[in-house]
């Protein structure tokens, strides 16, 4: 049986923690879809097109991983794609309650869906897209916390006239 998993998130921006989950997830499933999902609560810095471009660059060497975007219900997207596993990353106990609620509502909406949780690598335990955006907006270096393409995009956004290091 061909196992297709979807790793949904806003990925605004993709971090090395996300990349860790993607690389580990690609070994577990025949196909992994990194899905930029619409979240009406979150205010994004990067457009969907910018996020798609960054993620495509990051996963270009991953043979069984692709990126997509959708603004509807996750379970409906998964049904269209023939996927039945939701892959989610956990950093801390504080993530678990929210993720558990999402897993339960997705299971309620479609009994065929399963959610698999992976703990992020210990090096990325403390980072989130929100913290990355905050640090970068205040002039902090995010080099090494995000893929190089993301670091470059932040430089372009916050320091467009400075020479690249």
Report on the architecture of this protein.
- The chain is α/β, with parallel strands linked by helices and 165 residues long.
- The protein has a single domain (4-126), classed as Rossmann fold (3-Layer(aba) Sandwich), CATH 3.40.50.
- It has helices spanning 16-28, 48-58, 74-81, 93-109, 129-137, 148-158, and strands spanning 4-9, 31-37, 65-70, 85-90, 114-119.
- It has a five-stranded parallel β-sheet, with helices on both faces.
- β4 (85-90), α4 and β5 (114-119) form a beta-alpha-beta unit.
- The longest helix has 17 residues, at 93-109.
- It is globular.
- The termini are far apart.
Tell me the count of domains: 1
CATH architecture group name:
3-Layer(aba) Sandwich
Please name the CATH topology. Answer: Rossmann fold
Tally of DSSP β-strands: 5
Number of helices: 6
Compact summary:
The protein has 165 residues and is an alpha/beta fold. The protein contains 6 helices and 5 strands; from the N terminus they run βαβαβαβαβαα. It has a single domain, classed as HUPs (Rossmann fold, 3-Layer(aba) Sandwich), CATH 3.40.50.
How would you summarize the topology of this molecule?
Blueprint (H helix, E strand, L loop, with lengths): L3 E6 L6 H13 L2 E7 L10 H11 L6 E6 L3 H8 L3 E6 L2 H17 L4 E6 L9 H9 L10 H11 L7
Parallel strand pairs: 1-2, 1-4, 2-3, 4-5
